[in-house]
Amino acid sequence: MAGPRTPPYYSPTYKPNAANFPSSPYSIRINVYTLAIAITFLCSITYLFGRGSISTSPVSNVAATIPCIPLKITSTAAASNNSKLSSSSSSSSTSSQLDFSANQGDDEGEGVAPDDSVKVYPACDIKYSEYTPCEDPQRSLKFKRDRLIYRERHCPDKSQLLKCRIPAPYGYKKPFKWPKSRDLAWYANVPHKELTVEKAVQNWIRKEGDKFRFPGGGTMFPNGADAYVDDIDKLINLKDGSIRTAIDTGCGVASWGAYLLSRDILAMSFAPRDTHEAQVQFALERGVPALIGVLASKRLPYPSRAFDMAHCSRCLIPWDQYDGEYLMEVDRVLRPGGYWILSGPPIRWRKYWKGWERTRDDLNGEQTRIEEVAKKLCWKKFVEKDDIAIWQKPYNHFQCKQQKNKLMCPAQDTDKAWYTELSTCITPLPQVSSEEEVAGGQLEKWPKRLHAIPPRISSGTVNGVTAESFEKDSQLWQKRVSYYKSVDNKLNQPGRYRNLLDMNAYLGGFAASWVDDPVWVMNVVPVEAEVNTLGVIYERGLVGTYQNWCEAMSTYPRTYDLIHADSIFTMYKDRCEMEDILLEMDRILRPEGSVIIREDVDILVEVKKIADGLKWDTLIVDHEDGPMEREKLLFAVKSYWTAPATQDSNNTSTNPRMF
After folding, report:
1. Where exactly are the transmembrane stretches of this chain (predicted)?
2. The whole model's pTM is what?
3. N or C: which end of the chain has fewer CB within 10 A?
């Protein structure tokens, strides 16, 4: 999807500037002088006629809502590779940008902001390079180890929040482009050798010079993840589009999810932050969807009926314990007719019991208890062949309710999954009138699923959303993403971005508009949103999670290449501090990653001040519908910088900038 101009040559110091933005009737910078004259004229007329309204035209109405302010074109100078922290607020190339803020004039009467108007955020200590605030290993020690509760989310309170920028490790490089990133990652980006030793026999990961290589090995797929996925494909059809979304519990370095992507299946991989150092971080470096997470005492942060397939390969989750509570949670997030795949203990225990260093009776008892829980859930054993066993969830509870009525959960919100306690009961499926009907509605096969009306909407269960409004929303986001790409040509560069985050996804329209690009989008539905739409997003064949943006996300620093935030600061006004949300965005954004923020102009002015203090290169532009819209857009690029070199640094980069 090439833009109207040839994208500029990419370099570590590249940032948006006037030459990189094609002419557009909507660009504020293109219209700045016209706008300045218009506002000056309106201010003069208002002064002459007093405060009374002199016109009811749209122009004067809009002008009345935006104060008459001095417009200033500012420019930022190039930053030296060796710049120090005290001088790092300089940008990496020249860029003119429009400043909406009303500044006090200096002695010469110019509208120039004072030097101390922007709070500059310092760099954090290098020890925070991999800081995950809500899964901090030190804080977790204060909580119970029973059922791995200490590895759940435990966020810092307000007084413990960091007010500094998380540094990238010395020598950090831009990740390899997809699909090369599936097999390779830079050692400097995730400087951990532990898994290369601990999992050497299983062939998870190898260090080769300044790079890691992911051969695709695993405990239960000695011939590689690709061959393992082929084995599953022989048992259930992975090619006809009926299986699109999957969840991998205890994912390791996410090789299963990585090789499903070539089959157009999008897997959400998760694993705890535990002794297998940085496994989720490796997954994200590879360009595979992943989150830090654990099955312990809380529901997984996904809606009911989200996934076509769930998978556990030697994931060490005690499925047979706690009255089957963990399998009941898998049942909640599995779609009607969905599959649960289990390989590793206790499957095929007769062959492997000695190698697993467990007794036959122990393994046989575990499998028997798993089978019993599956029967309670009304699952049927679909197949067990060699190292793989597969169960299938029923398409409805028409028969199951009659047989297992006592085990059904009482009436509840089955999609509620943010700090929601697990329960030992079966999540009921929507009512059906016959055994042949699919509970909740039949989904289209992929790729038709993306644009078909989701069953949750067609059935009227999503408050305020109709088939018509869904289609309008899809068209709106196609227009908006097209506009984004016309403003910033980097968005047209194949492979420039891979991991995308939409902080307020609503119906997933932003993500759907990127479907032809080699990217994936983590669609977040804030728990404060008026309507819970994450189930709709999954019914479109997309993936996402719940999140409260007053807290940190369950992911590592430098996860995303591009972050999109639509009305986030309006939503969280008076809930938490704007700077804390922006600091979290900075934490999870890669060096030289991009940000697009949509907000009312007054809010965007405040956002820009903080973004400047984070040393982002920023540019405010008009709404896609023109300058009369109060909503504006801020395009930003995070500057490249790293922690200083240490004695242990493996310098794989040429002169990285250290702030």
Report:
1. 30-50
2. 0.84
3. N
